[in-house]
Amino acid sequence: MEPPQITVLLQKVGQGDKASESALLDLVYSELHRLASSHMRRERKDHTLQASALVNEAYVKLLGAQDVPWQSRGHFYAAAARVMRNILIDYARTRAAERRGGAPHRAPLRDDMLMVEEDPDRFLMLDAAMDRLAQLDARQAKVVEMRFYGGLNVEETAAALSISEKTVKRDWAVARAWLEAELSSSSD
Fold first, then answer.
1. How far apart are CA 11 and CA 69, in angstroms?
2. Distance from CA of residue 76 to its chain's centroid?
3. Looking at residue 140, what is its pLDDT?
């Protein structure tokens, strides 16, 4: 069985084939834009970063990682989720640094996880909690990253991590509960 077209193109791009970059972008752009749009829906309404800009910046960073041996479509989208998360975190840090005064606010987790809205501190608090979760349970942190930041469903997350869907559901529930408790205690 031959690898899917995206995986083949990722391998060619990783080998420095510039012609494959355009073909890859054509194949992945709509999915990356869907992921970026999902992220941007959690942001405040007047956010200056647009989904297209987030996709473009993430794509450039992903292709700039020439030494990454892309293993699969899932590996690529997991990396894209991580890069988008980092871009939004950097953006939130910049906004927080520009603000004068004000303490971080509590960031409750709901079924749709975190709505960042107008407070970049919420996003930064979640990022710090995600780092702590990764130290405690790296797989749970990856599940949250893929589901929340990557917009992957349970099936896609299971395939990307080579674990069962049941494990994804369990890790998702446990991680969300842990993050909610962590964010509640850090805001007190």
1. 7
2. 11
3. 93
Residue of 3, 25, 23 lying closest to 70 (CA atoms): 3
Residue at token pair 């993050």: 179
Q: Which domain holds residue 177?
A: 5-187
- Quote the CA–CA distance of 24 and 19 in Å, as a whole number: 9
**What would the pLDDT profile of 38-69 be if each residue is shown by its tens digit?**
767 766 666 667 888 888 888 888 877 656 77
Greatest mean pLDDT range, 95-104, 112-121, 128-137: 128-137
Q: Given pLDDT bands bounded at 50, 70 and 90, which one contains residue 116?
A: very low
The percent of residues in the chain predicted with pLDDT above 90, rounded, is: 13
**DSSP-assigned states of every residue in the chain:** -PPPHHHHHHHHHHTT-HHHHHHHHHHHHHHHHHHHHHHHHTB-TT-SS-HHHHHHHHHHHHHH-TT-----HHHHHHHHHHHHHHHHHHHHHHHHHHS-S-PPPP---BTTB---BT-HHHHHHHHHHHHHHHHH-HHHHHHHIIIIIS---HHHHHHHHT--HHHHHHHHHHHHHHHHHHHHHHH-
